[in-house]
Amino acid sequence: MGDTFIKASLNELTTLFTNFDALIHCMEQPAIRFTFGKNEKLCNQKLIEKLFDEGTSLFIRPIKVMFLKTDSNMPVPVQLLITVPKKFIRHATERNRLKRLFREAYRKRKQVLFEYLVEKHEGCLIAFIYTGRELIEYSQMEGIILLALQQIIKMDEKTVPETREE
Hints:
Structural class: alpha+beta
CATH class of the largest domain: Alpha Beta
Order of helices and strands: HHEEEHHEH
Number of strands: 4
Number of helices: 5
CATH topology of the largest domain: Ribosomal Protein S5, domain 2
Radius of gyration: 22 Å
């Protein structure tokens, strides 16, 4: 009777150690941080000009998205520029609110694009330009940002096979 108790305990210990190994393996993986730090903001004037000159655009009402694939020597996979023109939204408080909504929605949904770019060892410059004349709610903004990030991935997947064939 004592032997069965020891065997059961050994089986439990084996299971425990394999689960512990899996836990250690997960802890070694870099966790995606849901932050939007200074290094993720696109501030370099030359990169901004390059983005608007050579970038690809798509429009998801009321946001225009410009993006440009870059090499992987950037500090982070994606650098982001957010603009809300005074022409469309007159009051500074409303423009600032929209930019906060952009940042928050992007911060929560960026892992979709980050994982894709890290896997491919590439980088991306993105500009979100608000073209609407009215304020939108956060839930709408989050859906638009997620759709835009998915469209960027989809458009990149379409262009990758063409460049490989050449």
